[in-house]
Amino acid sequence: MDAGTLWDEFEAKTREIRDLIAVSDLLQWDQETYMPPRGEAARARHLSLLKSRTHAALCDERLGRLLDDVRPRDDAERATVRLVRRERDRAVKVPARLVKELAETQGHAVEHWKRARAAKRFEDFRPWLARLVALRREQADCIGHAGERYDALLEAYEPGMTVARLQQVLGRLRDGLVPLVAQIAARPAPRTDFLHADAWDVDAQWLVCLDVIRAMGFDFEAGRLDRSVHPFSVGMVPSDVRLTTRLRRDDGASALFSALHEAGHGLYEQGLPAEGTWVGTAASMGLHESQSRLWENFVGRSRAFWTHWFPKLRERFPHALAGVGPEEWWQAVNCVRPSLVRVDADEATYNLHILARFELELDLLRGTLDVADLPAAWNAKYERYLGLRPPDDAVGVMQDIHWAWGELGYFPTYSLGNVYAATLVKAMEKAVPGMWKSVAAGDLLPVRDWLRARIHSRGHLVDSEELVRSVTGSVLDERDLLAYLREKYLSK
Amino acid sequence: MDAGTLWDEFEAKTREIRDLIAVSDLLQWDQETYMPPRGEAARARHLSLLKSRTHAALCDERLGRLLDDVRPRDDAERATVRLVRRERDRAVKVPARLVKELAETQGHAVEHWKRARAAKRFEDFRPWLARLVALRREQADCIGHAGERYDALLEAYEPGMTVARLQQVLGRLRDGLVPLVAQIAARPAPRTDFLHADAWDVDAQWLVCLDVIRAMGFDFEAGRLDRSVHPFSVGMVPSDVRLTTRLRRDDGASALFSALHEAGHGLYEQGLPAEGTWVGTAASMGLHESQSRLWENFVGRSRAFWTHWFPKLRERFPHALAGVGPEEWWQAVNCVRPSLVRVDADEATYNLHILARFELELDLLRGTLDVADLPAAWNAKYERYLGLRPPDDAVGVMQDIHWAWGELGYFPTYSLGNVYAATLVKAMEKAVPGMWKSVAAGDLLPVRDWLRARIHSRGHLVDSEELVRSVTGSVLDERDLLAYLREKYLSK
Hints:
By secondary structure, chain A is mainly alpha-helical. Chain A is 63% helix and 3% strand.
């Protein structure tokens, strides 16, 4: 076969794998948005089947031979070969039996987690979590590592990242944040009561979310917004990207900031190149989170943003915002205070929630912490980093769905996202001097376009740290984030 | 391996095939309900991939050996083996290349059909339809037949049915209907103007649909109702069944009768046994249509039904129904008049629309009619059976999506459904003497329960005609339908 024919076969095979993943994404989106309750059991089976098929397709021997034989002709093709090889090398080491067992255990664990959380009984979730940790340890050992199991799992979310590097960067971030948060918290707390009044018409919130997302440049011909209990986003393909937000009458900020966050993810997906190829995927989950956090916090919680949007908000919510001025609003949505629940945390303390999880996961995978001792260890971390002790496990160790999904190694990507976002914003401010003026005038497209040209459209040509370095000149460095937080919260 | 282990392997393999089909169903549902417009191309590719995988799984050699080796232990298992063998025998005869080409051509053809229909230009759709007809002819020849290609395609929708039998039954139905429709049409037309006034609040229509479907016993924990341009339903599994209806301010009846129709399909799906097995599927598309048409027409267009529901309707639509009494309403929703568009046709003329399509499809597959001559042939049939000539091809030969999907052989199942429904209602009236009294009192569950016990819960234990015969004592016979129509429309 000539080189072109080989490449076509390789491309068709890898496209099929991406397509199987996209189909799984749709099933998961549907599960959280429109699936009727009794659909759960069949859906878990369908997802498990698709995961098995995806794994089998990666392990296909013909794909292995093609990887050896194809001759990539440019950077994009070389990147695709490198990425597929990495993915396949990981896949072939994991037996199909383990893939299936993980998928099935995840399906059941989520159900047990939901019930255990509602009943505030960690005991009911414990055996499932213990099983998942055992399976993930086994998986990490199959994949292989140089002594640190966590590295083997982290690689799936953040290619090129290691625990050793994470511990440095996140350790310094923690050391900077703990005193910084204490300093901010020592200042008088802003008024936030109006945010939680039972006064926020959900239909009006919905319209505001749509307005803001549209202004960000999200393409509604190639995506949509729906409601779900937990906001999330999936980009099946750049031409079909789904966002969700949650709407609550007693919360004036959550829907909007969730929408900003998810649309940040969504713009990344819509801006990816070469649909259906491996190089046309996001460079890492950390970089993905940088996009969501950049829009949610760096843009969405800026004074410039509210210069334009606060008057619009007041039009939509004349009652809920009666007597509230733009500065009071801005203060309220930037209230930094230690809290128990990650998803409600402000942009400064958020990283301490992540630190706690990262360190606990590390101990679980190393085997130095038993799942039975996890609640006590969780509570001790919260006491140490945030000065708070959860009253029960529902708002403590069981608050997140991630572990019930078996996702160990994912959490650090949230903090990596915050770190990357700070560095990207710094670079953007230099490259686009009129940026904040545009934001203040309601024009968000300069932000989107800069990110699109430099991040989104590059796909996974190189790993995230190298990509960010090529754009900003900086490697992963927590100092930009710490400087941003100090400047924002302590400068006056 | 012992018999039990063999059976488990067989069951797991066949369940995977059913699961792949269910996943395709979800993708199709999403395509018609929530998918953003630019998602089309990727969706067509995903559906084509799933169809190829389904075909490959059916052709799997191991499945062939299992079919030879398994020892079914009861009627249900024997039925499953028979059904899987039939499905596999058909599949192995069709090359994977043809399956893929059909799926891809269908994806493109639908897009071209939409555009051609909007532009009223059959010429733009003609090459795609010609290609689909050629591919379906090829497929039929691969599968094999005794001289009539149509039989090979019909078998997929209506196992056990043949063109020879269809021509007899539908021929007699046509011969009875043409004069019957003329007789009814000679009578004074009822008032229908209010049905088409721009006065039907869509939110109120939505609530009525939900009320009626709930009263039918549709389980909303295991299903849902959404909006779409063309009403349809899919039962991925009995615990996840999706219905849609369309809502238009200038149509007071269409949403409701569509909802009744689709919920009739949905109740069948929710009532099927043994989820994930082959015996746990509907016995045929004709029997499926019997369920939808039974609810839509025999129940939903009865006087008894409106005894209970008309007062509720008038509460919801005080303006639209001002000055309209229950008898006027009943007359309006039972207006029999020849018309051009199948989906708007009344229960009597509907079958003449089907007859025209069946006969044209037969000629296309035999090769006695060229696609280029199809519009003229269509118009001639309409002239002959309905006395009407389409002003353009959009309301003529291009009105249905089925041919753009490549579905040739499907249409007759609609008329089989009407025929079966009449026979089932006749049997139900005998078996449940208080049936119409219950319906008049708003209690629709006796109807659902009778159908559930006798039809739905039997799955595909036997083919549809045998199933109907075991329930009613009658084989497929158009006389029940003709008698019902005569009695309803000519008795006074």
